[in-house]
């Protein structure tokens, strides 16, 4: 302060403020990551939980289904959704520092949906139902419909193109599987009442 006052008294100009050094690319990337909205993280957390529910249901289907078509579908669901879970957890680790996600009963600012919360109950009902295959279809169709709705709600808001692409793929794949399961239900169980809770 004394030197500054002496400089001002002598009429010497004040030294210009030192400019900030240019930000390195890595620092820019870190700063940008800190500003990334949490919408993609919400998608990952909710979709991983939802996939885990489908995998648990499909595992029972592989063991109990009478129709080989259902066994094949359940096996395909397990393989594809495990792969998607692995990719989503990798993104979560890369973008948000941790691959850990809440369980199937998670809640968030978007809320936990009834289908997600009822997955374990649906599994117990499937195990006790006769015929099993009808119960499996009646549980998996609305579960898939919930997954499609979840993907649609996040698709247009995704920050990362990887999340948008996965949401699009989930919508396409599960919509196709819903249509197939509905057709099997119609052919195999023509007397069954309409599945009122299913959405597509």
In short:
This protein is mostly helical and 200 residues long. The protein has helices spanning 2-9, 25-35, 39-64, 68-96, 114-117, 119-128, 132-155, 161-188. The longest helix is centred in the middle third of the chain and has 29 residues, at 68-96.
Task: List descriptors.
8 helices, mainly alpha, disordered N terminus, 0% strand, 200 residues, Ferritin
CATH architectural type of the domain at 37-98 and 116-187: Up-down Bundle
Mean pLDDT: 80
> Which spans have pLDDT < 50 for at least 5 consecutive residues?
1-10, 12-20, 23-37, 106-110
DSSP helix fraction: over 70%
Structural class call reads mainly alpha
Radius of gyration from CA coordinates:
26 Å
Number of strands: 0
The largest pleated sheet is described as: none
Distance between the termini: 72 Å
| Large-scale geometry | elongated
CATH top level of the domain at 37-98 and 116-187 is Mainly Alpha
Quote the beta fraction.
under 5%
Number of helices: 8
CATH superfamily of the domain at 37-98 and 116-187: Ferritin, core subunit, four-helix bundle
The third-level CATH topology of the domain at 37-98 and 116-187 is: Ferritin
H and E order: HHHHHHHH
